[in-house]
Amino acid sequence: MAKTLLQFKYRVIDANVMRFYGVVFIREVSHMVTEHSDKGTLTNVLHSCRYTIESSLQWAMACDISSGMEYLHRSQIIHGRLSTDHCLLDNHWTIKLTNWEDHLLRQMGHGKDLREEDQVWVAPELLRKPAAQASEPCDIYSFALILVAIFTRKNPFGESDPKDVIHQLKVKDLRPKVKGLVPDRVWCIAKKCWHPKAELRPDASSVLSSVHK
């Protein structure tokens, strides 16, 4: 395990991915050691009244996230738990993906269980089969939720009870009701990325191209 984690330390280096330095186990609980984030999570920034976020910055954020995701997928790494909480900002407003290394710990039996409020970001196919392995389309789905969160500055499913949202995701293919609340281009990208059939979702490279236009 130590050798594998060490390989990630030196192999995964990208402008939109947080550097991983190691993992510390305290009373059998894993704690990641990563580079520092100055502005904290994207969740906090989006929900804060302190910041005015213009459209150009919103698209730059989306581009950073899709670029980081494309790099991970190109490196054969699946995040599996993408959300605004796992997007951190530095002082230059650059977003870097964090907790990407957690998938390896989960495979080794050291992963952490997700809270209900975190599960609403997870692809429905994983919610229906918790034992299934996350795939690239799962990350693409989560990106769609992050995209609408950036442009609405709200949680993708609003203030709905997480338990109810999770149930509807499993049985009804629930999606955020944001048509008309976000730019048409955002809606078009999101709709493709959260397609009910995982195999019909675009890959990360295509998403990056769509966002970068």
Mean pLDDT: 88
Secondary-structure content class? mainly alpha
Shape: globular
List the uncertain runs: none
* Largest β sheet strand count, sense and barrel closure: 3 strands, antiparallel
End-to-end separation: 41 Å
Provide the number of structural domains. 1
Strand order of the largest sheet: 3-4-5
> Roughly how many Å is the radius of gyration?
17 Å
The count of strands amounts to: 5
- Examine the coordinates and then state which fold CATH places here, giving the name of the CATH topology: Transferase(Phosphotransferase), domain 1
CATH architecture: Orthogonal Bundle
- What is the H-and-E element order? HEEEHHEEHHHHHHH
User: So what's the CATH class?
Assistant: Mainly Alpha
Pfam families: PK_Tyr_Ser-Thr (PF07714)
Keywords: ATP-binding, Kinase, Nucleotide-binding, Transferase
Protein name: Protein kinase domain-containing protein
Organism: Capitella teleta (Polychaete worm)
Walk me through what this model shows:
A three-stranded antiparallel sheet has the order 3-4-5. A two-stranded antiparallel ribbon has the order 1-2. The protein has one domain: Transferase(Phosphotransferase), domain 1 (Orthogonal Bundle), CATH 1.10.510. The chain has helices at residues 2-11, 42-47, 55-74, 102-107, 116-119, 124-128, 136-152, 162-172, 184-193, 204-212; strands spanning 20-26, 29-34, 40-41, 87-89, 95-97. α3 (55-74) packs antiparallel against α10 (204-212) and α7 (136-152) runs antiparallel to α9 (184-193). It is built from ten helices and five strands; from the N terminus they run αβββααββααααααα. The protein is mainly α and 213 residues long. The termini are far apart. Helices cover 46% and strands 10% of the residues. Residues 1-213 form the Protein kinase domain. GO terms for molecular function: ATP binding; protein serine/threonine kinase activity.
